[in-house]
Amino acid sequence: MIIDGKEMAFEMEGRTFHCALDVSMSFIGGKWKSVLLWYMRAEPKRFSELNRLVPGITEKMLSLQLKELEADGIIRREVFAEVPPRVEYSFTEFGRTMIPMLEAIANWGRQLAQQRGKMVEAPGRNKGKLEKTK
Question: Which stretches of the chain score pLDDT less than 70?
Answer without folding.
Answer: 124-134
